[in-house]
Predict the 3D structure of the following.
Amino acid sequence: MKKIFISLLMLISAAIVMAQDFDIRVFADTLKYNWNSPQSRYEFRDNLKIKNSLLQKYEKNKINIGLNISKSAVIPGLGHFQTKDYLRGQILLSTEIVLAGTTYFLYDKAMDKYDQYKNSTQIDVMNQFYTEANDSFKQASLTGFLFVAVWGYNLYDTYVVSKQYNDKLWLDYVKKENEKRIKINPNGITIKF
């Protein structure tokens, strides 16, 4: 225990010796922030206050991208509906429904033909049912692959659309703030004409 205490004490002592002196003039140098005058410093402070209030509104109304992607993973297109991109959402949802239905139909058809193949007794009929079952199964596999590909694209596009929505939301807040004709700040009232 003594060794640990002594080691800790030596480490703290070395840190104190190596520490640089705090220079208040370097810390208070306003030119490094491009504040050439007190007025520019006040304007920066006011701009920072405005951006903080805008940031609070933005954080409240922005879309959580991860949650939006999760919604889209469960129901394709739902993430697009959340970002008010209804056309893309409808296209993706309807495409997934059509592909899922087509895959199920073709797979069911392949299984029916396969059952007929197993129950048939003539070689020509067996070959015909087997070929039809195989063709339907290949088509079902293709549409199943397309379903998965569109689903993956849906997730990627949900990410892109959600990011664009959040970026546009921030720019809209900044634009609305800049378009205000009358602003009240600590320096007084500003009126734009």
The longest strand covers residues 182-185. Strands lie at 182-185, 188-191. The chain has seven helices and two strands.
